[in-house]
Amino acid sequence: QKEVEQNSGPLSVPEGAIASLNCTYSDRGSQSFFWYRQYSGKSPELIMFIYSNGDKEDGRFTAQLNKASQYVSLLIRDSQPSDSATYLCAPSGTGTASKLTFGTGTRLQVTL
Amino acid sequence: EPEVTQTPSHQVTQMGQEVILRCVPISNHLYFYWYRQILGQKVEFLVSFYNNEISEKSEIFDDQFSVERPDGSNFTLKIRSTKLEDSAMYFCASTEGVNTGELFFGEGSRLTVL
User: Fold this and answer.
1) Rounded to whole angstroms, how far apart are CA atoms A103 and A105?
2) Which of these, A33, A36, A41, A65, could form a disulfide with A88 (CB 3.0-4.6 Å)?
3) Positive or negative torsion for Cα A48, A54, A59, A60
4) Which among B40, B93, B9 has a CA at the least distance from the CA of A98?
5) What are the tens digits of pLDDT across the range A54-76?
6) Residue B101 and residue A102: Cβ atoms within 8 Å?
C-alpha cells in the first residue's frame, strides 16, 4: 500500500465551480496534514494544514480530515484559472525533524 | 518576507562528477530538508537535518549523498559521483520547529547529468 494516495488527474472543473481533491494515507501515526500547491516548474507552497478531525476553512479553501478513515480532502470553492496547479497531500511523520511524505499530487485544471 | 534561497538554479554535469547544491535556509529555522523531484514524478524526501546531524534519511540517500552545514547559514547537498538517474529538481526546505510542520521550500536547483 502506498503511503499517500491521490488521483493524479487531471481534474477539470469550470471556473466558479467547486473542486474536490482527495487523499488517503497509510500511517495511522500521522497527526498533521498539509496541502501544498505546486505550479509547473515551481516549488511546493503550503496552502492549508489540518490537525483535527472535521473541517477547517480558510478563504476559498476547506480541508477535511477523517483520521478513522485515514482520509483528507481539500475543497476549492469558486475555482479560478489561477488555481490550475498540482495539489500535493502531505501527512507529517513523527519524531524529531519529521518529514512530510508527499503524494503524487492531483493536477487541477480550471477551465474558462 | 524571508525565503529559502538555493544555488545554482540549474547545473549541468557529466556522469561521475561531483556536484554540490547550496541552500540558505530561513535564518531562525532549525530543521532542514532536501527533497528531489524527477521530471513528472512526485516530490521525494531525501534527508532531514537538525542540530548539526542527520535526523532521518530515505533509501535514495545512499553513500553517494552527503549533507553539511559548514557555517551558520549554508546547508549543502553533495553528490559524490553523479549518475544519469540523479537528474532531477532538488528542493531545499526549512522549518522553524517540528511542531509547526510548514516547510518553506526554495525555488529548487535543477540538476542535469549527461
Assistant:
1) 5
2) A36
3) positive
4) B93
5) 999 999 999 999 999 999 999 99
6) no
Q: Which grid coordinates belong to A15?
A: 471556473
Give the single-character DSSP code of B58: -
**Residue contact B45–A99, C-beta within 8 A:** yes
Count of C-beta atoms within a 10 Å radius of residue B47: 21
| Block residue for cell numbers 545512499 | B62
Please give the Cα distance from B86 to B94 (Å, whole number).
22
A5, A86, A99, A101, best to mutate vs chain B, most B CBs in 10 Å:
A99
Q: For chain A, say whether B1 makes contact (Cβ under 8 Å).
A: no
- From the list A44, A95, A97, the residue facing B105 with the nearest CB is A44
CA-nearest of A43, A22, A41 to A33 is: A22
Cβ(B92)–Cβ(B25) under 8 Å? yes
CB A102 within 8 A of CB A6: no
Tell me whether residues B49 and A97 touch, CB distance under 8 A.
Answer: yes
pLDDT in tens, B44-101: 999 999 989 999 999 999 999 999 998 878 999 999 999 999 999 999 999 987 656 6
Q: Would you call A43 and B55 a contact, using CB atoms and an 8 Å cutoff? A: no
